[in-house]
Design goal:
The complex is a heterodimer of chains A (268) and B (146).
Chain A: H1 2-21, H2 33-53, H3 62-80, H4 85-102, H5 104-109, H6 112-117, H7 119-150, H8 155-161, H9 168-177, H10 182-206, H11 213-235, H12 237-264
Helix pairs in contact in A: 1-4, 2-3, 2-4, 3-4, 7-12, 9-10, 9-12, 10-11, 11-12
Chain B: H1 2-7, H2 21-38, H3 50-63, H4 69-81, H5 83-86, H6 88-92, H7 98-137
C-alpha cells in the first residue's frame, strides 16, 4: 500500500530532479518554472526583511541580497546534486527566471509614464538633455578606458567595459562588434543596476548630484538603467522623468559613439 | 466610454476613472507587439531593442494624447514599483558566468563599480554645467519646480 502511494511521487520528483540537473533525455527537460519563480521571490523577500531589520544598511538592499543569496543557494544545491552551478542554474532556475525576466519588457516601457508626466521639462530642455548625454558619455568613455588600463584589463576586457551605459540588449552586440566579450558586458550592465540600487542614495549625497535635478536624473538613468530610473523617481518627478529619457537616449548615443571611440583607441 | 473619449480633447486626469487593468495590460501588450515588429528593421550594426522602441512609442502615444494617462498609469506604476524584483533573475544569471569571474573577476567588478560612479557623476555634472551655460549665455529660464 505504501509502496503504491510513494512510487508515483518518487517518479515525479525523479523527473523534476532530472530536469533540474539536465540529465533527462533531450526534449524532456521543458523545465519546471515554479522553482525559479519561488526562489526569486524567497531570496528577494529575505532581502526586504533583512533591509528592514538592518535599518537600511546598504548591503542589505533586497536586489543585492537576492542576487548573492540566490547564487549561493544554486551553488549549494548544485554541489548537493553533484553538478556544476552553471548547469543547475540553466536547467533548474532559468525556466522560472525567464518568466520574471520577461516582465522587464513592460516594466521598461512603463517609464514612458513618468517621462510624459514631466513633459514640460522635456519640451524645454531637450537640446540640453541630448547634448549633456553625448558630451557626458564621451568624457566617461575616456575615464573608463583609463581606469580599465589602470587595472591592467586586456583589450577584450576594456572593450567589454565601454558599452555598459546602454541597455543590455544594445550593449552586448556593440561589445562583440568592438572585440569585447558580450557576457562580461551583460554582467557589467547588471552590476550597474545593482550598484546604483545599493549605493545610489549614498553616491547622490556624497557627490551632491541632486543640486541639479535634471543632472541627477540623467546621471542615474545613465549609470543605473531602469533601476536607476526607479531610484531617480524616489528623488522627485523631474529626476524620474529625466532618468527615463536618459535610458533611451544614452542607448542610442552608445550605438553611435562607442564603435568609433573603440577604433580611435585602437581596440579593434 | 468610447463617446466620452471623443469628447475629452484636453484630458484632466485627476477626475477621470482609470481604465480596467486588463485594458491597460492590453495597451502595453499592443505597444510591445508593434515594437517587436519595428525592432528587426534596424541593422545589426545599430541595434535598437524592443523595450527601447516601446518606451518611445508609448511616450509618443501619450504626448499625442492618443493614449491617456488614465489608460496606462495604474499598470505602469505597478510595473515600475516591481523593477528591483524583476532584476533578481538578471543578478542570479551571474551564476552561469562564475568562470569569467574566476579569471579576471575582481578587476572587472572593480572597473564596473568605478565606471558606474563615473557615469553617474560625469553625466550629472556635465548637465549641471550645460544648464548653467544655457542660463548665463542664452538667458534661458532654467528654474524648475519639482
Amino acid at each position: 500500500m505504501i509502496n503504491l502511494a510513494v512510487t508515483p511521487h518518487m517518479a515525479v520528483w525523479g523527473k523534476w530532479l532530472g530536469d533540474a540537473m539536465g540529465t533527462n533525455a533531450a526534449g524532456a527537460s521543458a523545465g519546471n518554472a515554479i522553482f525559479g519563480i519561488f526562489l526569486s521571490l524567497v531570496v528577494y523577500l529575505i532581502g526586504q526583511w533583512l533591509f528592514k531589520i538592518g535599518k537600511g544598511f546598504f548591503l542589505f538592499q533586497p536586489l543585492f541580497v537576492g542576487m548573492v543569496l540566490g547564487i549561493f543557494i544554486l551553488f549549494l544545491l548544485a554541489k548537493a546534486f553533484g553538478t556544476t552551478t552553471a548547469t543547475f542554474y540553466k536547467s533548474a532556475y532559468l525556466p522560472g527566471g525567464n518568466i520574471i525576466f520577461w516582465f522587464l519588457n513592460p516594466a521598461t516601457i512603463a517609464f514612458a509614464i513618468p517621462l510624459y508626466r514631466r513633459n514640460d521639462i522635456v519640451k524645454r530642455f531637450w537640446p540640453v538633455i541630448i547634448l549633456s548625454l553625448i558630451v557626458g558619455l564621451v568624457i566617461s568613455l575616456f575615464a573608463i578606458y583609463g581606469v580599465a588600463k589602470l587595472f591592467h584589463l586586456n583589450d577584450v576586457g576594456i572593450a567589454s567595459m565601454l558599452p555598459q551605459a546602454a541597455t543590455t540588449a544594445i550593449a552586448m552586440p556593440i561589445a562583440t562588434a568592438i572585440g569585447g566579450n558580450a557576457a562580461i558586458t551583460a554582467m557589467a550592465c547588471i552590476l550597474n543596476a545593482v550598484i546604483i540600487y545599493a549605493l545610489g542614495d549614498w553616491l547622490v549625497k556624497f557627490f551632491k548630484v541632486n543640486s541639479d535635478p535634471i543632472g541627477a536624473g540623467l546621471g542615474l538613468g545613465t549609470a543605473g538603467h531602469t533601476v536607476g530610473s526607479a531610484k531617480a523617481l524616489q528623488l522627485g518627478s523631474i529626476q524620474g522623468s529625466m532618468a527615463s529619457i536618459a535610458v533611451v537616449v544614452i542607448s542610442i548615443v552608445v550605438d553611435v559613439v562607442v564603435p568609433p571611440f573603440a577604433s580611435l583607441m585602437g581596440l579593434h | 466610454m468610447p463617446t466620452q473619449d471623443k469628447v475629452t480633447s484636453t484630458p484632466t486626469t485627476q477626475t477621470e476613472k482609470p481604465s480596467p487593468i486588463l485594458i491597460q495590460m492590453g495597451i502595453f501588450a499592443a505597444v510591445l507587439f508593434v515594437s517587436s515588429l519595428i525592432s528587426p528593421l534596424f541593422p545589426a550594426s545599430f541595434p535598437v531593442p524592443t523595450p527601447v522602441i516601446g518606451l518611445v512609442l508609448l511616450y509618443v502615444l501619450l504626448a499625442t494624447r492618443i493614449v491617456k494617462l488614465r489608460n496606462v498609469e495604474k499598470f505602469g506604476d505597478f510595473m515600475i514599483s516591481l523593477i528591483a524584483f524583476l532584476f533578481v533573475p538578471s543578478g542570479i544569471q551571474l551564476a552561469a558566468n562564475l568562470d569569467i569571474l574566476k579569471a579576471e573577476g575582481v578587476q572587472i567588478v572593480l572597473v564596473t563599480l568605478i565606471a558606474t560612479i563615473i557615469l553617474l557623476v560625469v553625466v550629472a555634472y556635465t548637465t549641471a554645467l550645460f544648464i548653467r551655460i544655457a542660463k548665463k549665455v542664452f538667458h534661458m529660464n532654467t528654474d524648475v519646480n519639482n
